[in-house]
Amino acid sequence: MLFRKKIGIDLGTANTLVYLEGQGIVLNEPTVVAYSLEDRQVLAVGDDAREMLGRTPGSIVASRPMKEGVIADYKTTSAMITYFLKKALGGRIFWPEVMISIPGGSSQVEKRAVVAACKQAGASNVYLIEEPLAAAIGAKIPISQASGHMIVNIGGGTTEIAVISLGQLVVYKTVRIAGTKIDEAVTLHFRKKHNLIIGERTAEDVKMKIGNAFVEDKKEVRKMEVKGRDFQSGLPKIFEIDEKTLSEAIVKPLKGILEGIKEVLSQTPPELAADIVDKGIVLSGGTALLTNIDRYITYYTGVSSFVVDEPLFCVIRGVGLAIENLDSFKEAIR
Q1: Beta bridge partners of 97
Q2: Pairwise CA distance, residues 128 & 119, whole Å
Q3: E-assigned strands of 21-167?
Q4: Domain 135-177+252-311 - what CATH class?
Q5: What element of type H or E holds 226?
Q6: Could you say which of 3.30.110.10, 3.20.20.20, 3.90.640.10, 3.40.525.10 is the CATH number of the domain covering 179-251?
Q7: What are the backbone dihedrals phi and psi of residue 122, each rounded to the nearest 5 degrees, phi first?
Q8: What is the pTM of this model?
Q9: pLDDT band at 160, cuts 50/70/90?
Q10: Residue 165 pLDDT greater than 80, yes or no
């Protein structure tokens, strides 16, 4: 019997993380691929490709092959998975067993696309696990108990909202609003209000440095200089923005996430809802790092919310634990 390596992949819209059995998280890179338009040859993946975003000549395209948590470009996604597996395994892909996270409630077509992309990359067995379950396992929530737990995993492309009991999703909703939509709101704000055109990387930097979901009046306001291009003159321009103005710009996507949370809460059976009021709402995913997002959700739902430690690694830790203990997590695996 050949010893097959077990690998967990969190294939996110913004970042892809890879977990190797016995070693933990071995890779964390942006989900970006650069390829040439002439022969569709993949030129760069991950960090190298992200550097090219918005900076490529006409013959090269740097793009994100995942849109809102779903494979948008099958061929490039497959090439990207191959690259990440090779990098994680030190150059040799020897039919590993792969577990990959998918949005809760993915359609059969979406599931088949993920499995096919992994098989093409050289995986022997492919297991699928729903993102909210993986996030809950990674957040060390005892999901197998007969008790309600609510997890909100706010990633790059989707926000996964789920109530879990007895190791299964009881109520869940995938809202296709998350980090990327917040970046877009920032870009739109600069264009409409300040006649400044900025790239997606700049928008992401602004969000990470001074983004705030719930600004308090008493606190000192953070400011930041933003470089872009003037919409009218077409010349480079520098503009200073503060977090208060920015928080107004990102109200719309945050409201979309909040509506999803309220909808799931309204569909939760009363006994489980009582458990959630006791335990609070668990927030994970990279966008949970947005300043005060827990206070924003607590304020508007009346249920205490808290962000787990290292929210970006929550899903991948859960995927890793599940593939290392396949028997214990049989219920969760598709």
Answers
A1: 6
A2: 13
A3: 24-30, 33-36, 42-45, 60-63, 66-67, 70-71, 97-102, 126-130, 149-154, 159-165
A4: alpha beta
A5: strand 223-230
A6: 3.90.640.10
A7: 110, 15
A8: 0.88
A9: very high
A10: yes
